[in-house]
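Before relying on records like the one below, remember that each one covers exactly one chain. Contacts with other chains, cofactors or solvent are not represented anywhere in the record.
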Amino acid sequence: MSSDEDFSLVPDPQSEDTLEGIKASIQNYKKKYDQLMEETKELTKTIEDRRDLKQQFKQRTDKLTQDLEDDKRSYRDQLANEKLKLDQLKQEELKLMAEIKETNAAIKEEEANKKHLMQQADVFTSVPERDMVFKGATGNANNKQEFEMKPHIVYPMDGGTALITFEEEVVARKILELKKHQVNLGEECSITVEARPVHLMLPKLVEIDSEVCSQRILISNLPRMDTDTLLDKLQIHFSKSKNGGGEVEDCEYLSDSETVVLTFVENIAKRVVQNEFHDLNVQKKKHTVRVTPFLNGKISNLKTKMTQCPRTVMLTGIPDIMERETLQDLLEIHFQKNTNGGGEIEAFLYNPLGQHTSAVFGGTTPDSEDEEE
């Protein structure tokens, strides 16, 4: 229905007077009814279209809202991951900085060691010269002998004990296996002693670091003369400032290497060794001595092992019932007899009750298994 057309539900009084007017009026109402129905359908369709459009907009809005929430959540997760990575990078940076600091410290230490080793190398190239004549025999390099030390061990002994060193290891083992021994002292008198192994703590590994002494020098190529006179001449020569020296604290002659160790009061050894050769007036003649640095040794690593003496046995429980020498002779006689499980004795030491003494072990290190490090 157009907005320009007049529409009214009130009938025209003039048209109802005739049948034709009534039909025309009915036809008119019918037409208007059809128009109203058509417009109602169009309006209903429009409403449905609007409703569908609204539903689509709502779905799209919900989707956009969900996408926005997902984007926010993803952004938060990504931000948290990036923050975690940043924290990890900071930790790695701190770790790398610490490693760089440690590396720099290690480099400085290595440089100091290098400087020290170079100094040591300079020292080793200027060691005292000594003529030597080789009188041995050559052999395979693989058959080299290991370095051996002669121990000097002080072993404390309690009262009422004795140490026996047999000539053969098998005898010492037999005495230890029997353990209890009844020693006849004569006149129906006897004592019972117990045999125990002797364990000594010996060095297994010794590492020594050497360094140049700042107060001592080593003097070689010495003239043949009285030792005291030589030491006096060296002390006088190196105490003079014109010779690069200073006040001397000590002067010692080393007979095994035919050298002299001279000790200054102050740390001037480095200055003195700069002049390697010095002239001495000896019996109205000049004799040239050689001056080199002196090395101090310091133990940097020491490992020990408990070692059982293979030929030495300790006797315990010895009562003080007679004179020391008499009782020692009786004990020695008893353990020399083969019938008592004994054998030839190399050394015997007895310490009576009420006394304390120490035994000294020397010689080469006995071959035995390590028991404890």
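The helical segments are 19-124, 169-178, 227-238, 269-272, 324-336.
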